[in-house]
Amino acid sequence: MIKFFRKIRQDLLSRGKSGKYLKYALGEIVLVVIGIMIAIQINNANQKRLDRETLQGYLNSIAQNIESDLKKAEKINSIRLEIFPRLRLAGRRMDPEYYQIRAEVYDEQFSPGYPYSVENIDFVSRAINDAWTTRYLTPNLSGFESLKSSGFLSQLQGSDLEKVIFNYYNLIDDLITTENNYNISIRNSFDEFLNADLPGTFAFFNAGSRDWQTEIGEGYEAMIDDIMVHPTLIPVFLVPYELIIKYENIIITGNVLKKMIIDGESSFSQESLDQLSRVYNEYDDTPYAKVMRSGYVTHGYDRGIASAYNSQGVNFQFLGSHATIQFKNEPWAVLYFYTGYGVPDPNRVKDFSNFETLRLKLRGTQGGEKVDIALKDITNPTDGSETKVQLTLTNEWQFYDISLNKFKPTNMEKLFMVTSFITENQAITIEVESIEFL
């Protein structure tokens, strides 16, 4: 081909056709430039393809890491969701009020010494011993670290995928800090308890091995009481529910990130946005959706009672997997859940306007119990004038979904009292397993 073009040039020169020669030479240069540009474009396209493949390789490693992390996270979270209520119940089972409500409501009879029985001490000691077992999420960060050091992370700059990657690993860092602090307190509790060398410790943790109550005699119950109230056990009974929430946030965010990588998405789909909207951030006005779980009041909420006769008309007891609310026959009585902790403050509000439904899992102890449900915003007076929705319960567990529109004109953007159970002139007992906003 080169010889062919050279021959053309020589023929043109030999004939003295310099003008045509110049035009031909210029055309040849243009063809060469075009060829070079095409080659550069092909090379650039190949390089971009190689870069995309390399970046996707790093992202695939991250997705594999996340899949492994989420399996561990779900396992640890399920264990804590089982242990935390048992720890709360362990303390309750040494309280006379626990047995009082079981006798009055459920007609269960216990001897005065039952809290110190083999069955009960075995339950309590096993819960404490299980709490002393430290658990850590050890995430696999190799994929993320490789991506950061590769320089390819800049290709995601400004994309939704970059945001969710950093969000996920920031949540991981936050969880590791909280979990380390909790586990340190648990380990310290265990070490300090052993060093305290309390009388009766062996009997407490080996309740079924011998008849300790007979062997130790009159001092047995006092020994058990001293163990249960010893300061070294305080970290065991201070259940950090925020750990549950942090795990939930990681599981939600990790699933969204993994799906985006697998599907090759760099922008959020509506499904991803809906999922991420469930991630709880304690530093903004969006509340945690689960007010009660397995009878346990969760993070960011507290409860209070009131009734016509000096707040004596309501008895609330946590029973392990649900809570029992015993209303006495007074002109009015209310158990309410509110945002924040300690003394109720109507100015401490949260924005519930993104939710549509209040879901309650309830049952009556007899069936046919009628109870009013109400919410309060910052403007509602404490005179019972708030909007109420009445429910009639059965003696089977059921979900009751109430549209938040039914509580109008309550302002959901400034909600203070997130659920109230109200009765008037009736003695009833109802059970509550969960309270959640959807």
Structure description:
This protein has 438 residues and is an alpha+beta fold. 48% of the residues lie in helices and 17% in strands. It contains twelve helices and twelve strands. It has helices at residues 2-14, 18-92, 96-106, 118-131, 142-150, 160-196, 201-205, 212-216, 220-228, 234-237, 241-263, 270-276, and strands at 290-293, 296-297, 301-307, 314-318, 323-327, 333-339, 357-364, 370-377, 388-392, 398-403, 415-423, 428-437. Helix 2 runs antiparallel to helix 5 and helix 6 packs antiparallel against helix 11 (241-263). The longest helix has 75 residues, at 18-92. It is flat, with a radius of gyration of 34 Å. The mean pLDDT is 90.
Keywords:
single chain; 438 residues; alpha+beta; 7-stranded antiparallel sheet; 5-stranded antiparallel sheet; 17% strand
Please compute the radius of gyration using only Cα atoms: 34 Å
The count of helical stretches stands at: 12
Query: What portion of residues belong to β-strands?
Result: 15-25%
Give the biggest beta sheet.
7 strands, antiparallel
Share in helix: 40-55%
N-to-C CA distance: 75 Å
The counted number of beta strands is: 12
Find the structural class using helix and strand composition: alpha+beta
Average pLDDT over all residues? 90
| Shape assignment | flat
Point out poorly predicted stretches.
none
* Elements, N to C (H/E): HHHHHHHHHHHHEEEEEEEEEEEE
Question: In short, what is this structure?
Answer:
This protein is α+β, with helices and mostly antiparallel strands and 438 residues long. The protein has helices spanning 2-14, 18-92, 96-106, 118-131, 142-150, 160-196, 201-205, 212-216, 220-228, 234-237, 241-263, 270-276; strands at 290-293, 296-297, 301-307, 314-318, 323-327, 333-339, 357-364, 370-377, 388-392, 398-403, 415-423, 428-437.
